[in-house]
């Protein structure tokens, strides 16, 4: 029989109301929970929709925890953790894995680790299956001046109790690198390290490098050691070069001072020569004055001329003899 327009409208409204009802009151999800042994009411599922909490995730987590025998996982705790921005599925997975591996971890501890930004499920897996971390190449110099480049493999296990507030992998790698540098630096010769590389591991392990971190160091194995540069010889060469440059600078300074002194002496000699020439220029005036005053006679003047001529002749003869000897 044909339906009237009014009847079709009633059917459409009823269908819409049914869809809205099933959305806010997930009846099939409630049946799934009841069949799985999880006790939760339709009212609680409805209120989850109102609080914008996904009922499917909550119910699935409750079913998983119930099947695994986790009694401390409650609906209120899961809702609170979801509203706080946590990952409830990862927390429940971690709790189930920890329960199977006999690792003591509570729901409160797991949620705290998750809210701290760490992957709690990965941490539980790392507690069961330790992780190997490869350190970057670490350069160190032994006491004989030879550089060694070492690579290490650090086997760590997650420390569940230290995941909140504990340091991460970067801190562990930095401490291991520092320990390797200290161990190689305390060796008398690089040959000792090459002959017995496990001595580095023993020294580093005894320092308790995992203190205050989120990991427990199980072993430190030296994977590779390469011989680098002769740092001691390089430093000696650099020091010798620096000493040479200092000596050259000092010699240049002394040379500059000697040149300055020479220039000063030449200036003084020229000044003295100028004064002598000036004094010689005054001699004729003094002789003329002596003639006028009667203090110098003509015979005295001739005698002085003879003495000057004799002196000039002697200087000329002396100059010739010196050139002949040369």
Walkthrough of the structure:
This protein is an alpha+beta fold. It is 66% helix and 11% strand. It has helices spanning 5-24, 27-36, 42-50, 55-68, 75-83, 88-100, 107-115, 120-128, 169-185, 190-195, 198-205, 231-293, 298-325, and strands spanning 131-134, 138-141, 146-158, 215-230. Strands 1, 2, 3 and 4 form a four-stranded antiparallel beta sheet that branches. Strand 2 and strand 3 (146-158) form a beta hairpin. Helix 6 (88-100) runs parallel beside helix 8. The longest helix has 63 residues, at 231-293.
The gist of it:
The chain is an alpha+beta fold and 326 residues long. It has 13 helices and four strands.
How are the SSEs ordered, and which strands pair?
Blueprint (H helix, E strand, L loop, with lengths): L4 H20 L2 H10 L5 H9 L4 H14 L6 H9 L4 H13 L6 H9 L4 H9 L2 E4 L3 E4 L4 E13 L10 H17 L4 H6 L2 H8 L9 E16 H63 L4 H28 L1
Antiparallel strand pairs: 1-3, 2-3, 3-4
Helix pairs in contact: 2-4, 4-6, 6-7, 6-8, 9-11
Relevant terms:
326 residues; alpha+beta; 4-stranded antiparallel β-sheet; 13 helices; 66% helix; 11% strand; elongated
**Biggest sheet character:** 4 strands, antiparallel
Compute the gyration radius: what is it? Answer: 52 Å
Beta-strand segment tally: 4
Indicate the structural class.
alpha+beta
Task: State the helicity in percent bands.
Answer: 55-70%
H/E element order: HHHHHHHHEEEHHHEHH
Report how far apart the termini are. Answer: 153 Å
Beta content = 5-15%
Shape: elongated
**Regions with pLDDT < 50 over 5+ consecutive residues?**
none
Provide the residue-averaged pLDDT.
82
Number of helix segments? 13
């Amino acid at each position: 029989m044909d339906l009237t327009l009014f009847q079709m409208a009633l059917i459409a409204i009823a269908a819409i109301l049914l869809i809205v009802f099933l959305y806010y009151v997930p009846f099939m999800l409630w049946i799934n929970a009841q069949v799985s042994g999880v006790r939760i009411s339709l009212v609680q599922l409805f209120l989850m929709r109102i609080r914008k909490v996904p009922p499917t995730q909550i119910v699935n987590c409750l079913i998983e925890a119930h099947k695994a025998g986790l009694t401390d996982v409650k609906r209120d705790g899961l809702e609170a953790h979801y509203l706080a921005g946590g990952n409830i599925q990862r927390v429940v997975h971690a709790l189930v894995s920890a329960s199977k591996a006999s690792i003591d971890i509570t729901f409160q501890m797991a949620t705290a680790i998750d809210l701290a930004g760490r992957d709690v499920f990965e941490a539980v897996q790392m507690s069961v299956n330790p992780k190997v971390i490869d350190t970057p190449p670490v350069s160190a110099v032994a006491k004989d001046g030879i550089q060694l480049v070492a690579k290490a493999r650090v086997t760590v296990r997650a420390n569940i109790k230290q995941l909140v507030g504990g340091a991460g992998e970067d801190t562990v790698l930095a401490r291991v690198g520092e320990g390797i540098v200290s161990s190689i630096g305390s060796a008398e010769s690089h040959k000792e390290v090459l002959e017995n590389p496990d001595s580095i591991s023993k020294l580093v392990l005894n320092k308790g490098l995992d203190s205050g971190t989120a990991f427990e160091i199980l072993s430190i194995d030296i994977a590779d050691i390469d011989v680098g540069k002769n740092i001691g010889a390089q430093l000696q060469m650099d020091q010798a070069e620096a000493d040479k440059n200092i000596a050259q600078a000092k010699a240049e300074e002394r040379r500059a001072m000697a040149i300055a002194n020479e220039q000063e002496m030449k200036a003084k000699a020229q000044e003295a020569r100028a004064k002598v020439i000036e004094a010689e220029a005054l001699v004729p005036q003094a002789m003329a004055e002596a003639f006028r005053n009667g203090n110098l006679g003509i015979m005295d003047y001739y005698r002085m001329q003879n003495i000057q001529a004799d002196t000039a002749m002697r200087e000329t003869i002396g100059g010739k003899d010196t050139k002949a000897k040369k």
